[in-house]
Amino acid sequence: MAEELFPTTAENDAIAPGVDCDGVFVRVAVERGLDRAEGLTYRAPAGTRVGDRVEVPLGRGNSKSGGFVIAVGGAELLGGFDAKKVKRVLSVTGSRLPEELIELAEWLSGYYVCPIGMVLATMLPAAVKAKIGRRTVRLLERPPHPPHGSSQESVGAEVASLTPSARRAWEVIAGLEEEAFPIEPRLLMARAKARNLGPINRLVEAKLLREIEVQRVKAPEVFWSEGGGAPAPAPAPELTAAQRAIVEGVDLGTYGVHVLRGVTGSGKTEVYLKLIERVLGMGRSALVLVPEISLTPQTAGRFLERFGSEGVAVLHSGLTASQRHRQWASAASGEARVVVGARSAVFAPLPGVGLIVVDEEHDSSYKQDQLPRYHARDVAVVRAQKLGVPVLLGSATPSLESWANVVRGRYRRWELTERVGGAVLPRVEVVDRASETARRRAEVGQSAGLESIGPTLATALEETLSDGHQALLLLNRRGFASFVTCPSAGCGWTLGCEACDTSMVVHKGDTSRGYTRCHHCLAEQSLPRKCPVCGGGVIELGAGTQRVEKELESRFGTTLGLVEGEGFARVDSDTMRGAKDYFDVLGRFGRGELRVLLGTQMIAKGLDFPGVRLVGVLNADTGLSMPDFRATERTFQLVSQVAGRAGRRGEPGRVVVQTMNPTEPAIRMAAAHDYLGFAERELRIRADAGLPPAVRMARIVVRDEHHDAALDRASGLAKALRMECGESVAVHGPAACPIARVAGQFRFAIELLAARPKDFQEPMARLRARGGLKSDAHTAVDVDPVALM
């Protein structure tokens, strides 16, 4: 177990009722859906600061609510209201956010059309609010000698009057370095070689030692609780000329957005590390964001190895509540000078930030899918701008939003076009699955169409494993089969979810019969044996990772030793129940205990294993049929990213991409590692169609369990928006969402398109002020949406 100092903001955690608040007034943003950007005014005790979390009475019933102080002042905050009627703050909780984050929250509230109290509630982790793991600890410090009001002679007399054991202890303690204090009594006892606490207590009585109380957060280590401590520092590799140009070229003294496009394996992380070294040398701190899926011990370990002595805090969803509190407190106190974390780490209360890095900046997991619907990459850019520091956006396949800003000259462009250490990009072979299946059926019969692993990929897998190497197999679809249907042409029945307009997905449990599950509302039902319409048999179509798992065992279990849990592992959200499961599997793969990883996009990024020589993409078309204008971009990124896992060191790797659309530009260009060609083409298509990033978009989804109620509300809102926005904004809809009903709620979408975001943000803000637009259970407002389903 480890402990960290926790910075407190108030001597007492509560203000007793009736205590005079000295005429100080504060404005509080409550953690509710209350849409008051200016906050509510309360009377507060002297010393209350902007950023303090408080508890206040709310409404006629004076229900207790948490909130944050966003302004402190005198009578000017009353706005003419009678001071005698102003309610008092109930308590100051002891938690706070820096003023810098309060200012950032105000921007988020306006930009994402969200109540500021909800934004602030998101910024401070629940574990910190609940003080989980926090406790009061008695420590000892050595006061300046001689103590105040004492002479050197009196101190000498005090020492002379001690018992022999206390005197011996003092001789050791007096020689300890200043950095040893404050210290726990029992630890000091051990260092003083005392047999018990008696001598230490006598030194306290003689005022040679002084007791203090501090708040600490106790929690296990983040990644290394089972491994015997953090990894030993590794020597930094020599930079290539291209890497050095970036490290020396980024101006750390001013704000600027730098986009680093580096092919997989080109050493982007080493550039981050070197820039952070420069920042730490300037006495500043650094914030690094990575996608949740990439935050493995392997990734975070590189930062811990390099900057462990400077203090590294790691924030991700796999932490326990006490771990999250400890890591947050370490950042807030300045004890950790580097923070590495997933999306919400963009709000880390790190003082003195001198650099922000967003790795894999294209990743959609940076977008929050619930209130407030912020994009961590964009928030990072704004935070850097407000701080006047640079932000570096890195990716092998930058988002088209970022690349459009590069093309327009708003962001500076850096490139790493070659892999480090002489490694080369893998050879990518696009396999026409339809032609391959037709040939296979001609040879062995119709059963060949049921195989997910075609002949080309199967041969490559056998060769790779026979040579002692490892392989990754990607299928971005979990479950056993995608849907259940009646094969009769005259029937066509398909098993759908009763609460959603989607098909049920087949999963196999302990029994071979299996069950079906909706991947949207998570409803489950048994797998039918017969068609309920015509009474005929049913079939299961569309392969998921669970079906491929069975195929690997049946086809290669004997010849290649591929047995689930021994020769290979399936990595998807059904098998990986938590971060520990994921880290354990990656550890086994890294040690060579597993030869194949089969999984969804969880294995497509953030992994660097030298033994991987083969990557197989089982169905590159999975996302292409989605009714979303970003479908081709996501397909290009996914294929490019997973292909980059092969041959990262040593001999070249091989990638086999199975597709039913071998001429699809996104797949063809990903196979050719042609990001620049793809980006140019896709940006031109978006501009011709009037879609982001050529324009800016906001999307409002109205939901209700009654179809007509949802449509009427959406129609009224669309009419109000058209009147409020004028001609500068195109308001489309309402129209039924691609998935028109989810969890029993009918859904209608309104889309707003404009040249600038403020063209629709300001009208929406006016509509909000009149109560005509609320972010609640029935209405979701999403500015800069990344998914349109």
What does this structure look like?
This protein has 6 domains: 22-124, GIY-YIG endonuclease (3-Layer(aba) Sandwich), CATH 3.40.1440; 135-219; 241-421, Rossmann fold (3-Layer(aba) Sandwich), CATH 3.40.50.300; 427-478 and 544-683, P-loop containing nucleotide triphosphate hydrolases (Rossmann fold); 488-543; 696-783, Alpha-Beta Plaits (2-Layer Sandwich), CATH 3.30.70.600. It contains 22 helices and 30 strands. Helix 1 crosses helix 2 (116-123) and helix 8 runs parallel beside helix 9. The protein is α/β, with parallel strands linked by helices. The longest helix has 19 residues, at 707-725.
Number of domains: 6
Question: In what order do the strands lie side by side in the largest sheet?
Answer: 11-12-10-13-14-9-15
Structural class: alpha/beta
Largest sheet: 7 strands, parallel
Poorly predicted regions are 1-21, 224-231
CATH topology of the largest domain: Rossmann fold
CATH architecture designation of the largest domain: 3-Layer(aba) Sandwich
Q: Give the helix tally.
A: 22
What is the fourth-level CATH superfamily of the largest domain?
Answer: P-loop containing nucleotide triphosphate hydrolases
Number of strands: 30
State the name of the first-level CATH class of the largest domain: Alpha Beta
End-to-end C-alpha gap = 45 Å
Percent of residues in helices: 25-40%
